[in-house]
Specification:
Helix content is 2%, strand content 48%. With 298 residues, the protein is mostly beta strands.
Length: 298
């Protein structure tokens, strides 16, 4: 089965605005509730927020309202003249220098928390920015920041970050993959700070974590998280024990090469892992709740 993909828009020609000078590390879509919004981060510490421009803005017939520059849609082979999409291009809604350190990952929060962006950096910093205007996405404010490993006197590189899916009456939580281990953090709203509540380490001891993922909590008594480290992916259960969280590793998913990415399906029942040997594996629990490899794609 083959599919043909075409470029329908690009982000060149941004006028006076500063954009990425280093190579891009990550791009991420915001929730559809906020429209067509994409964030990009690069190794020079710059973050750019892009939103889809309507046809009038793309033609230059009107002011975008916030000084945002418009990236004209790329040439389309579909013959409809609109780049294959409903709009005329993409506008640079905002760009800002988030850190002097390289940005390694970013992710939008669940929409129930608003238009909120988390970023992790090579110097161990994790920063959170809120959009002051969710319609134009022009102004962003730094609302929280902390450094991983600062309490122990050692600095950790923050490779990966992901949000816990939203559920009612639960605080904001994130899963971070660092240079030594993964960690679960919870936002204490009364103190306006993030606190580490659990650590997840590989079986061999401290090792870099290449990816993290938090499964949907839908229909589960205990929640599941996954992280990749070395030649294995690990699955852990997270359960609420009244005044603290208990985290227990329940599965080790072996590969023949370094594991680069882990991703849950929408229901959080199947874990997909990819490794340096060119394989993708799918894992599910059997009737005895033991995790088994159910399929392999090479």
């Amino acid at each position: 089965l083959r599919a043909s993909w075409q470029c329908v828009s690009n982000t060149e020609g941004q006028g006076e605005r500063e954009v990425h000078r280093g190579y891009l590390r990550k791009v991420c879509w915001a929730h559809a509730e906020f429209g067509q919004v994409v964030a990009s981060a690069s190794f020079d510490g710059f973050v750019c927020i892009w939103s889809e421009a309507d046809a009038k803005e793309a033609r230059g017939d009107g002011d975008s309202g916030d000084g945002g520059d418009v990236a004209m849609a790329g040439a389309s082979t579909s013959g409809n003249g609109d780049g294959g999409s409903g709009g005329g291009g993409w506008r640079l809604a905002s760009s800002f220098k988030a850190s002097r350190s390289a940005c390694l990952d970013l992710g939008f929060a669940p929409p129930q928390y608003g238009l909120r962006l988390a970023l992790s950096f090579q110097d161990g910093a994790v920063k959170f920015f809120n959009a002051l205007d969710t319609f134009r996405c022009a102004d962003w404010k730094l609302v929280q920041a902390f450094e991983m490993g600062s309490g122990s006197g050692t600095t950790e590189v923050c490779h990966k970050i992901c949000w816990r899916p939203f559920s009612q009456d639960m605080p904001e939580m994130i899963l971070i993959g660092g240079s030594r281990q993964a960690a679960v953090l919870i936002f204490e709203s009364d103190l306006d700070r993030w606190s580490q509540v659990a650590e997840l380490a590989a079986a061999e001891g401290p090792a870099p974590v290449s990816d993290v993922a938090w499964a949907s909590a839908c229909g589960k008594a205990n929640e599941l998280v996954a992280f990749a480290s070395g030649k294995a992916a690990y699955i852990a259960e997270v359960r609420d024990a009244l005044d603290h969280l208990e985290v227990t590793t329940v599965a080790r998913c072996e590969h023949g090469a370094a594991v680069f990415q882990v991703e849950w399906n929408r229901l959080g029942t199947t874990l997909a892992t990819s490794a340096g040997d060119g394989s993708v594996r799918l894992w599910r629990p059997d009737l005895t709740n033991e995790w088994q490899e159910m399929a392999q794609i090479n």
